[in-house]
Design a protein that fits this description.
The structure is a homodimer.
Chain A: H1 12-34, H2 42-53, E1 57-58, H3 59-65, H4 70-82, E2 86-90, E3 98-102, H5 104-125, H6 130-146
Antiparallel strand pairs in A: 1-3, 2-3
Helix pairs in contact in A: 2-5, 3-4
The first copy, chain A, binds a DNA duplex through helix 1, helix 2 and helix 4.
Chain lengths: 153, 153
Amino acid sequence: MSDPDFWMSARREHRLVFLLNVAHRRLQRWIAAQTQQSGVTAAQSGLLFVLGQRDGVLMGEAGAALDLGPPGISGLVDRMTAANLIKRRADPDDGRAWRLWLTPAGRAALAQSKAGLAEVNARLTAGFSEAEIDVVARWLTSLQSKFPKGEDE
Amino acid sequence: MSDPDFWMSARREHRLVFLLNVAHRRLQRWIAAQTQQSGVTAAQSGLLFVLGQRDGVLMGEAGAALDLGPPGISGLVDRMTAANLIKRRADPDDGRAWRLWLTPAGRAALAQSKAGLAEVNARLTAGFSEAEIDVVARWLTSLQSKFPKGEDE
DNA sequence: GACATTTATTTCGCATGCGAACTATCTACA
DNA sequence: TGTAGATAGTTCGCATGCGAAATAAATGTC
């Protein structure tokens, strides 16, 4: 075939969706490989970061912080609880709610994740100026209002 | 909590990974909702586009075009074959290989996807200049070499 | 106080896509 | 020719995360 990237030569408006998709998967795959020894995935380190800032947060709050719906955060918490990274404790004031807490292992994993993220970020920004990265960040952020979830319209 | 986006105020180097992740999911979710009636998902329309340009492509070639590994393209083809969007026919010259062909239903779905993608692209680029979109596209593309798959190093 | 509504979380079935291991076929080389 | 190695796909188990529906507890209303 000798033209493995003919997709890339497709019409301009087709590319951004594809590029975003590929970039996302490349990054996820990379992080998964990097954190293989620690056993923590990209999504899991996201929750570790949240708890690092606000230990004891409600599940729903953690989900909102990570832009995850109820099933997403529920599954993530299940896996991380099974891996002994976090603990789930009932909220004393609300029988429906659960609060999430880092375990010692979770704290250690968070420290490792922080170091790994520094490396990832260095790669993410390499070759681009501050101003360009700001454009990128602004564009990525803009997608949240352009493609709202549910009733946000 | 009244501060649902405290994650967003995290250190600057933590944000791009998160923003990319969220942007990707928002977009996927949006496309899934839009194409609900046609029953075609974002990943599936990707393969439709590839076949629209090169009907009869090898599975491996389609996977390369979409940046999918063997299991990824295999599963996608399974689902799309079951949905009668594409057909899998043995390559006459290579007993290991299969070639993919659009069905009439697949062609119709492709036409619908093209229209939908125009709408998506309008949103993706809204509020940003050509030059800014170019920066974004260049940045997204750069991730492919910064986070290579496997042995590419 | 009882009942309707809202809210927090879980469960189910699904699509996506990965790495590792497997099967089948083809190619090259001795 | 015969066998070692490369190549095309498949399968398995997993993580991720969605929408829809269920469960359970809190809240508001009459």
